[in-house]
Amino acid sequence: MGGKRKGYTMQTITVKNIPDDIHKLLKDVAKFNHRSLNNEIINCLEKYLKIPKIDAASMLRKAQISRSKIKHRFSDSEIHDTKNKGAESQKWDLLANQKQRR
Known about the structure:
The protein is mainly α and 102 residues long. It has helices at residues 20-32, 37-49, 56-68, 76-101; strands spanning 4-5, 8-9. 64% of the residues lie in helices and 4% in strands. It has a two-stranded antiparallel sheet with strand order 1-2. A hairpin with a 2-residue loop joins strand 1 and strand 2. Helix 1 (20-32) crosses helix 2. The longest helix has 26 residues, at 76-101.
C-alpha cells in the first residue's frame, strides 16, 4: 500500500535488478545527503522527472538583450574561419604532445 507525504497518497513501486554499482552509488549519495535510500531514490526521480517549464518569451527577451550588447557582428565566413583555425590549432597541439611523449 502507498504511504503519505505532503498530504498526498503515495504509491509503492519495486525496482528489480539494480546493478551493484548503481545501488552502491545511491547508498553513498543517500548517506552524504543524510537521507534514507528510499528518500534518495524519490529525490533523484523528482529531479529527473520534474523538469521546469521553459518560458520561451522570457528566453527570447534575454537572448535579444544579450545580442544587443555585442558590438561586432561576426559574418558567417569569420565564424567558419575561426572554427577552422581552432580545429587546426588543436590538431597541431595534439601532434606536438605526441612528439613530446616519444
